[in-house]
Amino acid sequence: MSLSWIDILVIGIYIAVILSLGFILSKKASKNIDNYFLGGKKIKWYFLGLSNASGMFDISGTMWTVAILFVYGLKSVWLPWLWPVWNQVFVMVFLAIWMRRSNVMTGAEWILTRFGGRGGRMSHIVVIIFAIISVIGFMAYFFEGIGKFAIQILPWDLTCDLGFMTLTSAESYALIIIGITTLYTLKGGMMSVVAADIFQFVIMTVSCLIVGYIAYTSVTGEQIAALTPAGWDNMFFGWNLNLDWGGIMPALNDKIASDGYQIFGALVMMMVFKGIFASLAGPVPSYDMQRILSTRKPSEAAKMSGLTIFLLFAPRYLMVAGLAVLSIVFLSPELAGMGSAMDFETILPIAITRFVPTGLKGLLLAGLLAAFVGTLAAFVNSAPAYIVNDLYKKYIKPDAEPKTYVRFSYLASIVLVVIGVAFGFFADSLNALTLWITSSLYGGYAAANVLKWIWWRFNGYGYFWGMLSGLIASTVKLFFFPEIPDIYFFPITLIASFIGCFAGTYLTKPDDDEVLIKFYKNVRPWGFWKPIHEKVVKLDPTFEGNKDFGRDVVNVIVGIVWQMALVVLPIFFIIHKTGATLIALGVVVVSMVILKFNWYDKLHRADIGFENEN
């Protein structure tokens, strides 16, 4: 790509700013690990919402989303349910409140408020292991994505012969960008991550608007229809996908076949089945959970999660749709000529190279680098908390000076980044990593983390063996059954995990009443808590249990519809479907009105009896 001096200057200014933020905030962040990892639990909820949205707006995910929209059309909006993308709605409606009431630093520390004794300690360890494994997986995912992106958009050949190995240009770019990200994150901790994320979100939003404008004014609906198969612009589906690229770009039919998504109805049913369990389990121990625990009070944790949904989907899909339709209209002949050799994950950088005018490339590239940097920084900041707070501080050196823990956090971050990058050298594709992380690895997380919320009898031993069984099943899938689509293996992983949960629970004693009473009274979950509820009422006759199950279910359903409308609205707009755009806009407005009265106006009740320890 040919970059003007203006483009290079914009990228340089962006890198200088984020590095400066890390050093400026380093003094405040290094006071103690609570400041370093959680910003002292004093950061405004809307800043955290901006940061969370920025952290989820990653390059690798955006490249994957552009590719699937190109191939599957409007039906691609269902594929992020593999995650499921609507787990954020569960968090917004009630899980963020339940988590924030704990007043802890990490998901592993949270486990010790739910389970006691030796079983609790075993559960604590397995959550730390899960957090570290998932972060290493995501590091590899980012390494693969940023490398593919960088070689398409940056003009310099950075191939490097180290003697014992040769770094490709993509690998060299990835190492440089990851190094810069790690540096500013190490220095400033959570406060620098949030400050940089706010700056980055502004850049990304402007970039999305630019791409959307270019696509909308450059492409017509007739051009898109002429170069896509029948049904491409329809989000609804039958049992079979029925999307035939044969007369236009036959290689895409091979892509669909290799993905295993021809029987689309069965796929969506499986995603819904998996999604309910995965969403009810709550956030995995990562940056999303960290931002929830960084808020000042439970109601603000819920608001932060709702703001994340709103800020993430509409602007991101404006860019996704813009780049996808520009590629369809102007790159189809070239892509068709590549045949089976085409790498669909490079559509995004190729589109930027061809369609964004000189002078704006720098801003857009800075925005996409910001998307990558924001997500990686969130992981670099969150994962070491499990090593430092939950291992080093708790089991090795509980009485060290606060700055000792911060320095140890630097070391833990560097070690995790190095291991993640090492795994990235062996990553085959973004799609394979995405599907393993979302469908297989996280499948092992679901069963134990659903039961921890809703069933009083579930104990620490059950949690440990349930999590371990799920991790083993997902690893078996990775190495012995790679040909099976991950989503279809999910029931096996889930069953294995449930067997571990029930065996561990019923072969051991329940947790002590003291632990269960304290947890239930503090968190106030709904579910199967009757024996504990009765004991709490005996101690405190004024206590009222959680009666919001029905309202929460309604709000989750409305929230999922709202989120889906935010996804399809910009796509319909970019492909010039005026009627569908207005319908999607109407759904957004109506769902927000319902949530305003049935969710937002009742959030103040979440703070009753809560006291922030900071």
Q: Looking across the biggest beta sheet, what order are the strands in?
A: 1-2
Count of beta strands:
2
Q: How much of the residues is beta strand, in percent?
A: under 5%
Q: Helical segment tally?
A: 25
How is the biggest beta sheet arranged?
Answer: 2 strands, antiparallel
Report the span from N to C terminus: 50 Å
What CATH first level would be assigned? Answer: Mainly Alpha
Order of helices and strands: HHHHHHHHEEHHHHHHHHHHHHHHHHH
Helical residue percent band: over 70%
Structural class estimated from helices and strands: mainly alpha
Named CATH architecture = Up-down Bundle
Low-confidence stretches: none
The name CATH uses for the topology is Sodium/glucose cotransporter
In the residues, how many domains can be counted? 1
State Rg.
24 Å
Shape: globular
Q: What is the arithmetic mean of pLDDT?
A: 82
How would you describe this structure in keywords?
single chain, 25 helices, two-stranded antiparallel ribbon, 614 residues, globular, mainly alpha, Sodium/glucose cotransporter
What does this structure look like?
The protein has 614 residues and is mainly alpha-helical. The protein has one domain: Sodium/glucose cotransporter (Up-down Bundle). Helix content is 73%, strand content 1%. The chain contains 25 helices and two strands. A two-stranded antiparallel sheet has the order 1-2. The longest helix has 50 residues. The radius of gyration is 24 Å and the shape is globular. The N and C termini lie far apart (50 Å). The mean pLDDT is 82.
